[in-house]
Design a protein that fits this description.
Helices cover 28% and strands 25% of the residues. It is an alpha+beta fold and 509 residues long.
Amino acid sequence: MPAMAPTAPEYGPPLPVVKPSTGLLAMAPSPTMEPMLAGAARVDITPSLPVDVLGYVRRSVAPRMINDPLLATGVYLEDEGSAVVIIAADLANLAPGYADDVRGRVARSVDLAPERVLLNSSHTHAAPWPGASVKLGGETDAWTERELAYWEVLPEHFASVAMHARESARNARISGAVGHAPDLAVNRRERTADGRTILGWNPDGFVDDSVPTLRIDDLEGGAIATLVGFGCHPVVVGPDVPAAGSDFVGPLRRRVEELRGGVAVFLQGAAGNVLPLEAFFDRAGPEVAMGQRLGLEAAHAVADAEPLVTSVERLPFGSVTPISLYRRVFEDVQPAQVVGVAQEVVDLPLLEAPSVAEMETELAEREAELARRKAAGEDRVTTNPVTYHIAWLRLMMRTAATGPLPTSVAGEIWAARLGDCAVVGTPGEIFGEIGSAVREASPASTTIFAGYCGGVLGYIATPEEYPFGGYEPAVSHRGYGHPAPFSPAVAGIIRDTSVKLLEALFAET
């Protein structure tokens, strides 16, 4: 049967707009202010099945059913001299070269420079990883025609989000606040009795339960969009569930939209060392409760974060006895809300790579192990992890044959000022301590720190975790095609560059 390319996106009925029937915004005239325009949109990006979804190396079957639709949601914001597009998608990751192509297509669709576009992947482990050099698990070793067809059409879906968001833009205001959702996530760097570090529970390790949220409303009080940040791997549903889905992200968005209206945009945060408190279930369902709890907290956080400056007016009112009435009203002149973007490409150093001789020795050992497992009748659940190492070794040896292995990787740090709020975008699976430090140092009233932006480069751990070894600082670079792990110095580069960009944006006015 020939491969089926995904169909063009369907927008569906107009998005609901929530308007108060009574209260401040319904009674007051529109205030005078500098114009800000904002629009939002969503597009279904679920691929035609079956396709391999990535994130679990032990996954051996390509999904043939959908647990929850995969979406791309985004916003377009503009002031008189600047505009920005932020799009978040239910994907495992975007590979660096592929992400550049998507970003360029989005930029052209709304007449912006590419650096004014931020792409974020939710990192659900039940979605494709477009552009990846090798598969991390799955039913087939090579990419299928159906999977490649999905890669071809996906940039148009992203462009559709940007275009529809711009077309729907109207006068708007933005504000933010930070909620907290304790007991949903846990530090995953578990220490074992024999001195190893594995993935599990480390209740003494750092975890950030903050839910930074930005609220974008029109001037009549209708919700345009809600941007929600949280740092946690979307792996409530485990590899034994043969379905594509968004994990907790879809239920989060739906709950926010039920409570606020408009479009909910989830930006995956510093999730590198964070798991759901209960993860890898062998059935769908538990992810719904986690998503709904996060959505409830996001809506609660911004419920009182009125985007317009108000004051209290005293009104006389008489009956048998004199009464004073008090009403909140708009200030006649509202402060300007700036839309600004800053970005910097930084050099992220790697540790020393193994020699070619060392790689040749390991490759021979891994190939022998794979042959033994196959001869014993083992299936891809146990052979995929061996193939993971073989694919990396072969890639590195091919690269070494053409010249020296790279000693660093270029990565973009991105920041946007949105009124008094901010969004920071970084290209990796960032440890929670790093994202928290950026938010704490930010001059913005509310800052969303997003990892998994653009082309995702791999895990970035704190220096303190390197002596403990384990997956993130010692092994994970193989899945991202690097010859060695990132240097411990990279955490500081990410943190310091992010803060520097934010300070520059807020120093401009």
